[in-house]
Design goal:
alpha+beta; 11 helices; six-stranded antiparallel barrel
């Protein structure tokens, strides 16, 4: 007998009475039904949701009779044909003896929605990326060629424009900031080429950062979203768009109830700029930032740990003339609290170029306010690969041991050995104890310690003297400002115990 079967009858009767009481008080149990408004929402907005069809000319591989037919990603037959032709071709999937055929057109399908009855459509950038031709397919099957207005790769959004042949239905954006966990949402799109599919679920999480981009702040939902839903709208029960369905997490490729949508607050700002300029014009502060760990917070006398730590300031950026320096911690920007570096990145990017804003920083334990006129963020910086050269013969070094590091004064030979720029000043690390806190924090030979406890240093002896003083003062850690060979700075907190 199990524990359930031998439970006292009185207890079972009591639970039954409780269940009946709950049923009588509230009617149908909440888990047995969803909200009443889903059908009304679907009926109201369905004609504003469109399918996005794209075609792209690609070089054919392994032509001939054994070639796999071109199917739109997410087609129900894609997996079947993929397995079938791989088995016929053998390992690698190549055709038997066939040369590459002529270029072929491949098709893909996604989703989008109309935001203006003049024919303006919002979708994901990845739905239309590299397409030679884009078509919008209305809910009644009408297919119309569309033109690209603009894209933003960082938020994966795109705006299209087409000439309507009849009156259109458009939807408006709602306020994603008003969403609460557990609110019901409705997704409509084109999963697996099944246009006009309506699914419903709840908001599972807000402001979700999944490290897919610099401005991640997704709405997470368990509404069923699959391949082909990309670019489609996520509605609240008022029929307002509160997100753009963008990606899912799934080991199998199908929905497991973890989907992500770009919140409407982000979408509105991006779409407005794409319609106005055809590109994004984001604000730029001109600083490199990092997280404020508990150790760093303790070293800087910041309680609790919060904000974005300025690790470097661009000489040509807006922060420099405003007086912002490495070691400052930004805790508020333009009246908005900054809890971590992601917060600062998002709020700066969303702020108009040329606007003068107040930036509240903590410097040496005290708050200060700086006025900054934002610049414009340019396209990603070009990464220059370091040119390898033969290392000079090792020199005899005079080193000082401290914090698990071998330290030496910068010399011409050491600059050449580690390719350290002339602009970098400080004490160079020549070796790191593998069992030290420094190794765990990823310090390595060639790094240069610029400051200790926010004071410049030029020798290993100075560093040891500062560490000894911090120990006497009862500090648990020491804050180092560390530069790499190219002059890029970061803060590292090391234990002094």
């Amino acid at each position: 007998m199990t524990a359930a079967t031998i439970a006292p009858t009185r207890l079972r009767l009591g639970l039954a009475a409780l269940a009946v009481s709950a049923f009588s008080a509230f009617g149908t149990p909440a888990y047995a039904r969803g909200p009443d408004g889903i059908a009304d929402v679907a009926e109201k907005v369905i004609d504003a949701v469109v399918n996005i069809s794209t075609s792209q000319t690609v070089e054919a591989k392994g032509g001939g009779s054994n070639s796999m037919p071109q199917l739109p990603p997410g087609s129900p037959f894609e997996e079947f044909f993929d397995d079938f032709f791989k088995n016929r071709r053998g390992p690698g999937g190549g055709s038997k003896g066939g040369d590459n055929g002529p270029p072929k057109k491949t098709n893909s399908l996604g989703s989008g929605f109309i935001i203006d009855t003049s024919g303006v459509v919002v979708t994901n950038n990845h739905v239309i990326a590299d397409a030679d031709e884009i078509n919008v397919i209305l809910n009644d099957g009408t297919k119309i060629k569309a033109e690209l207005v603009g894209v933003d790769k960082k938020t994966d959004l795109a705006v299209l424009k087409f000439k309507p042949t009849k009156p259109l239905v458009a939807v408006k954006f709602g306020d994603s900031d008003k969403l609460r966990l557990g609110d019901w949402v409705v997704a409509i799109g084109n999963p697996f080429s099944l246009g006009g599919t309506v699914t419903a679920g709840i908001v599972s999480a807000k402001n979700r950062d999944i490290s897919s981009g610099p401005y991640d702040s997704y709405i997470q939902t368990d509404a069923s979203i699959n391949r082909g839903n990309s670019g489609g709208p996520l509605f609240n029960l008022d029929g307002d768009v509160i997100g753009v369905n963008t990606l899912i997490i799934s080991p199998s490729g199908g929905s497991i109830g973890i989907g992500f949508a770009v919140p409407s607050k982000t979408v509105v700002a991006v779409v407005d700029q794409l319609r106005q300029f055809g590109e994004l014009r984001r604000g730029w502060l001109g600083v490199r930032i990092q997280s404020v760990t508990d150790e760093i917070a303790e070293s800087l006398n910041i309680k609790p740990a919060r904000g974005a730590l300025v690790a470097g300031v661009d000489d040509k950026g807006p922060a420099k003339p405003a007086g912002i320096e490495p070691g400052d911690v930004v805790v508020k920007f333009d009246g908005k609290d900054v809890k971590d570096p992601k917060d600062l990145s998002r709020v700066v990017a969303d702020t108009a170029v040329g606007k003068e804003v107040d930036v509240v920083i903590i410097r040496k334990g005290k708050e200060e306010t700086k006025k900054v006129t934002l610049g414009r963020l340019q396209d990603p910086d070009k990464v220059q690969a370091a040119v390898k050269t033969d290392e000079p013969a090792p020199e005899k070094l005079v080193t000082q041991k401290a914090l698990g590091l071998d330290l030496a004064a910068l010399s011409k030979d050491l600059r050449a050995r580690y390719k350290i720029k002339e602009s970098v000043k400080g004490v160079v690390v020549t070796n790191v104890d593998a069992n030290s806190d420094a190794a765990e924090k990823r310090l390595s030979a060639g790094d240069v310690i610029v400051e200790v406890a926010q004071e410049a240093v030029s020798s290993g002896a100075e560093i040891q003297k500062r560490v000894d003083q911090l120990k006497k003062d009862g500090k648990k850690s020491v804050l180092l400002l560390v530069s790499n060979a190219d002059g890029e700075l970061r803060f590292v907190a090391l234990s002094v115990q």
